[in-house]
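Section 3.1: Structural characterization of target chains.
Under the original work plan, the team committed to producing a structural model for every single-chain target entering the pipeline before any wet-lab resources were allocated. The record below documents one such target. The sequence was received from the expression subgroup and is listed exactly as submitted; it comprises 422 residues.
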Amino acid sequence: MGFDPAPGYSLAERDRRWALARELMDAEGLAALIAYGEHECADLAPFAPDNYFTNDRPGSIVLFCRDADPIQLVWCNMPIQDHLEARKRGDHLWIEPHNIRAGSGFQAGKNAAGIVEVLREHGLERATVGVLGLDPYPPFHINPIMPYQLWREVLAELPGVTFKNVGLSFLFATVCLSAEEQAMVRYSATVGDAMAAAMLDAAAPGATEADLYAAGMAAAFRRGCAAPDMLLWSGPGFVAWGPPAWSYRPQAPRTLHEGDVVLAEVFNRFGMKETQHQVAIAVGEVHPDVEAAAALARECYEAGLKVARPGNSFGDLAEAMLAPLLANDSWNIHPMCHIMNPYGPVCGFGFGLKRLPEARQYPRLFELPTMGGELPLAPGMSFSFEPNAVVNGRAVNLGGTVLIGEEDPIELNPYTAQLLRA
């Protein structure tokens, strides 16, 4: 599988994003914008609006004050050391050295003291300031990401400031990807296919789940992508979904057998733009219910493609992908689709688990309705298409990343939109 050279961001992309920040400030009546970034090395669904504005090591706080260039607050010297060496190598950096400040504890840096210092320098003690970090960021940050202690100190030091949550406005402003951002998504998606192909090559009776996991991750790493994680289960039939049990419980990885199905969700990332790949592998002859579930999931996928066009809403998309399940008395173990880059609206799931006799032992089960259904679909949006169907207690998921085009949807991963056969 050949690969084009990895793309990069230009200063024009930086200027576009900084202009977007100031447009958001104008629209919301803000004198400043605070973008809080989750710590570096975060795995799934990282909350990294700081990186969106810096194109640099995530885990900082970025502040836009009036018309000034943004200030980046970091927690220690290590990000500065990286920045320094990158300048020596000739990398294209977005933040000037004099606008990066380090500090922790009582020294102003990536903390309350750093935020307060910057806002006071610009005379914003009684201004309205927007914040990215005070809204939930589903699916993995159901609660706001901002640290309680940090924010409590900011509020105590700046009682005259009106702080305003602007996470939803940021989502609307950034969810339609630029041409450069779409290039990152396309590259990541191509690498995701290579990961799936490597997993298929490794799938055979006697191999372990860990063998497949390692093969997929190695394929991404060799191509310069940061594949942060993988959900993976195997067996003759199941309705479980999540990371492999051996990744959090001390036990041996499961060994594959003839007749197993392997279901995985591969997360890949390049340029901080994510793609997702639903890998379903039949190891030899699988149970007829697995074949039926795969066919039904494929029907859901095709139904979604028919609706994934400008003029429709996310609710239309979710409803179309769920319709074949309802018509066939099936259900889904995880969302059929959700938006990415950034995360936002998500299709409902969980309504069918109560059908299983074993589920009666659990007093409270979770059902998520479709959220964000009113969002209109527009060119440049990126979605994870991950249709999944359960037939008699056996699930299959398949799919990949889809872009909304000017007219028709753009399938980036038709390879994984089918049941692969080892």
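The chain is about 30% helix and 20% strand.
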